[in-house]
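pipeline/complex-builder :: batch 7 item 3
reading input block
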Amino acid sequence: MSGLILPYTSPDAGQPSSLHPDYRSTVLRSPRQAPLVIPQTLTEVTGPSDWARLMGPAMQDLTTQHKGAPQGQRIVVTGRVLDEDGRPVPNTVVEIWQANAAGRYIHAKDDWPAPLDPNFTGVGRVITDAEGRYRYVTIRPGAYPWGNHKNAWRPAHIHLSLLGPAFATRLVTQMYFPDDPLIEIDPIANAVPMPYRQRMVSRFDIGTTVPNWALGYVFDIVLKGRDQTPFEDDHDDDH
Amino acid sequence: MTTTTDLESRNAAPRQDSQDPSIFGQTPWQTVGPYFHYGLPWKGGADLVSRSDMGARPDLMPPEHFLLSESNLSGTPQGEVIEIAGSVLDADGQPINDAMIEIWQANDAGRYASLDDTREDVPLDEHFIGFGRGSTDKGGVFRFRTVRPGRVPGPGNTLQAPHIALSVFGRGLLKRLATRLYFADGEGNETDPILNLVPESRRHTLIAQRKPDGTWWLDINIAGENETAFFDL
């Protein structure tokens, strides 16, 4: 049985440490001891694949969940979910949540004085196709202040959650937008060293825009790959 | 007059992004932040056995924005129904009321409902997926209703003791913390290949104890004296 276990790779140099004191909440919420290295077993290399039964059907348009259209710049976000060897990860769920155009979350604990939008919840989920592609429609979220330090502002971002094929491939990340000056001064984004931080920045893509309707951004998401991959041609992706 | 730069060959600094092959690799982790409750936990996400709202926090969003779908349970799974619960605590021992926990486990027979568990001699349970997700409550407590998992194989010819894989997420957690829950009376705990890699002095941080009401209780200490043993995944 154990002969069938193909472990997934370890975190690479671009993964943040649990403790990043510039992001103050990490100080009391990070382990002091190094994580224990264990061999991956069937538990770690398996994961749920029946996502629709778990969490319900896809919701790929975040702009049509209420009576009217939400305020803000309508955008399309698309891309592929790949493993580290560039292979598509098909039939995997990408969960999405975000603030509205004014930078406010529909959450009881977000009470900064920016307007709520009755037509925008900011939640969605999509499933990748056979080529690992996903696509959703939303509005561009606004930046917002937070209490980490004096005059702290989060750059505009969309939260993304992926299960991938296994317990070991779990990923929660945030997608940022190109040319946002707040990324450089954000403690959460800066927990990731350069140049890896740029892996979280989407690309404006004129080909993804929908004329007279929505701007477009491309964002590929890369999950851990298998540690011992069978030999195959290492063909590059087209971007 | 001379220029200090060669205007003809001057290029803007390259802007790297997710689509740049030169930095291709694992997308970095970021925190779920404090506002995930309307986005991540689905209704009944913490109830793997029956229909309920376990795991969701409808108190944290207006009802018209409680769009989370309900899990589509098809029936009652085989096995002993159990509840697992515990407090999530920070380095000062304070409860974390904005954490999220996920679980992943085998069914009663010891089979994972996963494409990558191909053992046809161990039965699947069509009513059991084995994945759950729940928020901690106002007091920092997580709770799941599930079935007690069967044993699954480990490295070599070993057999693992019954266990539930567990991930911790939250504001201030830049990446998930992965650990396991074992049962105090679990068959094979003494010989479990993973538990035996945990220093003996820390092994108790993975072993749930049975409360008088039947709940299997395991606190998760992010840091501090009884820091939970987390795994490098």
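note: The two ends of chain B are 60 Å apart (CA to CA).
queue -> next item
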